[in-house]
Amino acid sequence: MINAKMLRQALPFLSLAVVLVATFIIQPRTMSYFGLNLMLQYAVPIALATIAQMFVITCNDLDLSIGPFVGLVSCIGATLLLDNPVMGVAALVALILVYAAVGGLIQARNLPSIVVTLGLAFIWLGIAVLILPSPGGKAPQWLKSLMALQTPIIPFPIIAAVVIGLVIQFALMKTSLGVIARGAGGNPVALTRAGWSMFKTKAILFGIAGFFGVLSGLSLLGLTTSGDAHIADRYTLYSIAGVILGGGNFIGGRVSPMGAVIGALTLALAGSFLIFLRISPDWQIGAQGAILIIVLALRALVTRGGQVAA
Amino acid sequence: MSDHTSTIRLDGVEKSFGAVRALAGVTLAIAPGECLGLVGHNGAGKSTLMHLLAGTLSPSAGSISIGGETHSGGWTTAAAQTHGVRCVFQELSLCPNLTVAENARVLHASLRGIGWKARASALIMEKLNQIFPKHGIHADDEVADLAIGKRQMVEIARAFTVTEQPLSLVILDEPTSSLDAITAKQLLEHVKRETARGLSIILISHILGEVLSTAHRIVVMKDAKVVADKPGAKFSRDSLVEAMGSEHHTAKIAKAKAAQTAAREMVIETAGKSFHVGKGEIVGLAGLAANGQTAMLMRIFSGRECKVSAPIAFIAGDRQSDGIFNLWSIARNATVRSYGALSKRGLISLSKEAELAETWKEKLAIRTPDMENAILTLSGGNQQKTLFARALSSDAGIILMDDPMRGVDVGTKQEVYGLIHEQAAEGRSFVWYTTEFEELTHCDRVYVFRNGAVTAELLSDDLTEQRVLQASFAEKAA
Amino acid sequence: MTRVTRLAREAWPWTFLAAFAVWLATITYTGGQGSGAILTAALSFATFSVIVGLGQMLVFTSGPGNVDLSIPATITLAGVVAMKVMDTDNARLLIGIAAALGAAFTVGLANYALIRVLRIPPIIATLSSSFLVLSTAISYGRGIRIKPPPLLADFATARIMGVPLVAIFTVILSIILAQILLRTVYGRSLLATGQNARAAWLSGLDPERTRLITYVASALLAGVAGLCLSGFSGGAALNMGEEFLLASIAVVVIGGTSVAGGKASVPGIWGAALFMYLLVSMLNTFGASAGIRLILTGVIIIAVIVAATRDTGGR
Fold first, then answer.
1. What pTM was estimated for this model as a whole?
2. I need a labelling partner for B153 at 20 to 30 A (CA). Which of A36, B49, B335, C102 fits?
3. CB contact under 8 A, C204 and B337
């Protein structure tokens, strides 16, 4: 018996499958190790940024600064981290702490996260431009080799994405602390009544978001091999879209880590798919928008169908 | 009862919200193994009392002591937890996006590490099995997917689970409001078993039968005070109802005008004709809070399944969520329902608007130096008058009132009552939901609601508080 | 309360004060040189932020968390459509304007439909639609850059006694919009819906219709900005809208429009837009780098929202 809820949960996977199968049919050569590797290499940084966004959405907030943040990390990685690894790591840790502090501030002062993170976006971009006024720098060798890893049989991006998804899925959905994180989005009042601190919870969730933002920036740097302040400006939109495509809701602590990764993969694939369709690259973002709207429409349909049945 | 034998003791506890006094000096003690029934009409202060015990509110004055230890200021949620005080709140405090087992985890910090989920499931399922055999709930069910009754069962069972901290007092606020007769009975049996084992329980309920059958002692609250405190056996249903009501209103109130419903032209009529309102009539909606009265007003307002033949204006009782525009001036709040009359060629005339606001400031005696001041500079009663001005200054022929006198002082009430009669005489119809009996005496006709349905229709001549209460309270759970 | 104290509690007088202070600091540094030129430039560039800011303001005002992310894409689409339809021909000016505004109108309608039919938050609805709109613009506007018809370019760059014509036109537009907010049923409905949509409905207003008009108006204003911008900068560019995403939100927030909805400030948009531009030009004069300018912008936005939230929270 298939119910509306199962259908809803399956939707992200179905969307990915549809895009993937369509790509294979149109361009059978992509069904190879190198084809998949090429199509999906950028899925890793996008997936990591999406995971970062997901942690913020878990506690009913939104992060408009994740794109510039990823850009900033790529700049630090291409300069400070290369020249002085200790200072580089310290700088990245400091950035994560700033993220956590912002989460705490938003909770303590009851600020609208959209505006605070918008301000933050300017600040990240500013620091990044100070570090690297124009694209440049060099990725540390270890990063480049990591991202160019040739894994046997299954291409590295797929393994990386699945591992990331599964680990976060376990941490957020199966551990006792993950329960508290999701509870913070589901019913903050109940959480406070049970004696948990919303301030701490939100600071930690934002901190985790910062951590994954750092990972996203470094993995992107490993692929591009040089830093650029503006390289990831689109990631803000991608990450939000990825979470939503993956079945997450904006409020209520309903997110799906595996779904978010799948959503990111779908977005990354959609671009290649259109190139193979010989539709001009102009429509790449348009297709992403269309996929988003179609998935949301399907979801609305499924949800409404479920309500009618119930 | 001496201090060391009581689980928890309140001494002269007071609580005010702005000008409204929710508790006016309550002294109360609960002994180990005692089930205390707490009854009273809406707004009597029961819920406030419970929030104080749970530590979610702190008292304005007085002290709370537990096990002989006095907490005058430091009684917090954390303190309540370590002393084993648990609450089942009326608004559910489960996380809807989590499973049953995960919600158990939220309450118990000790449920962590490897195997937490198995332990949490075992804990909550054992309690559910114990209290509600054959409950049909699984530990992996997401709370949002459960029916409201099952959610309440989970919430109740969760309150009785024990891990590291002891359990000394459980407060149940309307625990059976969403339970069916069988599960309600199971809960009451459980309450008896637990008290026999030494646990203290406070049972707040509108279903008098279950309080009478379960509580060792019954405390009646009225107007923020304790008005009766006797062993349960000393009460009967009638004496409880009597203690809750006010003596001087139990007598029938004679009314000057005898309204003939049949002769009136109908302005509201429901599909089944079970509910109707005539032109110039004042119709009261009575019964306990949230028993379908507001839903009826909404049905009329949106014209669902009923025929409405005049423009409608609505006067909110819950000012914050349904009425006031916080950022606006008094004048703008008063005129928002009248833009049609104030506009000329699509533009609102600011001078006419100010004039209208001024007129109604006079008529309702809104106490403010300037109608341009922010609405929040007014007291609650004057804010409420502004909402009356909004509706009465409009072109509406039907005025819906959603218990609009909550927290309004006596003087203001009298002024408004006079105005309502005056307006009704001019042909305006009023549908008036109220939780105060005295206000029903101003109505030509009263419908009493219970569980979303009309259980009695009383003409003003037949109206007594006893009859309203009899129709409002169910004998036992439905 | 006197007029002065009431004024001081609003945000917008402070934005003008801040803009003036920044200008003063700049011309003091330059020894009075180019003080007029700076103002003219500020008016020219601030005007575009004001036009889109007004639209974003309406959307913000319609309720907590409401935002229009499709503004940049709509600007680009309108610019591209206008340039292509006009095809540098003065005679085709009107039909070009109609086509551009028609495209913008469609975007607004689509945004509202997505919010209403799919029941998704405005931020995600306008985000998804912006992807599609931008692609449409890129695809349609592919190829060589088309110049604007001379008439449009003249209008967009003309000045009367140093004051850009577009700025004058935008001031008039602002006054009209302020009147709409103050004196029409739509304006009052918008303010009421933003404060409390349920109370607005119970007061006999129509929140849904209000939202529809709001999203359409925001898109139309973005369309107007796209038209003026392409006239001003010699044609439509595919990235012409980009900077206005953050700018439109920033001027609204700094100008004192409430993020929680229900409170709009038209003069605040002007003050904030002038302040933002003059700040940048001051920092330029001082020789500060682009990085410092961006960081300062961000710090100001956060400081303003912290201060504004404390104001309402304390009451």
1. 0.84
2. B49
3. yes
